[in-house]
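F.,

This is the one I mentioned.
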């Protein structure tokens, strides 16, 4: 099964080797027929601490790196 890849914006880089990425998805509401924006935060592994707040990044699923990290940064 292929690994999921999501695109989002870095919202925090305070932790060592970790970035928090906010991923936003848009969909049409089933009843109101209005476009709705929902966002979710993921913690991703960034071994070299290369990405800073505001950077647009792509993250990919991986095995557990720590208690909260199940994603790794693929590219900026």
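My design for it:
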């Amino acid at each position: 099964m292929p690994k999921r890849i999501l695109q989002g914006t870095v919202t925090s880089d305070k932790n060592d080797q970790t970035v928090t990425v906010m991923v936003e998805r848009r969909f049409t509401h089933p009843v109101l027929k209005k476009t709705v924006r929902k966002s979710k935060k993921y913690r991703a592994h960034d071994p070299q601490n290369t990405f800073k707040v505001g950077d647009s990044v792509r993250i990919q699923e991986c095995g557990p790196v720590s208690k909260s990290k199940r994603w790794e940064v693929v590219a900026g």
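The mean pLDDT is 96.

Talk soon.
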